[in-house]
Design brief:
67 residues, alpha+beta, three-stranded antiparallel sheet, 3 strands, 28% strand
Length: 67
């Protein structure tokens, strides 16, 4: 387990993502007030909004289609 802290961010179209707290939140996203481990944040997003990676600004089509 890493010591990194994450936060849940939301876009203006209500898409949610898990984001490292030591990285600036991308334009168009705001923090929702949930922070903690990556697992904690992903669990929050999954329980309240479905797929935790749906709006991840770092994901690419290849992430969803591994070879």
């Amino acid at each position: 387990m890493t010591g990194k802290t994450y936060t849940v961010i939301r876009s203006n179209t209500n898409e949610h993502s898990v984001w490292p707290t030591d990285t600036p939140v991308p334009a168009g996203f705001d923090e929702v007030g949930v922070t903690g481990s990556q697992e904690h944040c992903e669990s929050y997003v999954q329980k309240t909004h479905g797929n935790p990676h749906a709006a991840s600004p770092h994901r690419t089509p290849e992430d969803d289609n591994p070879r």
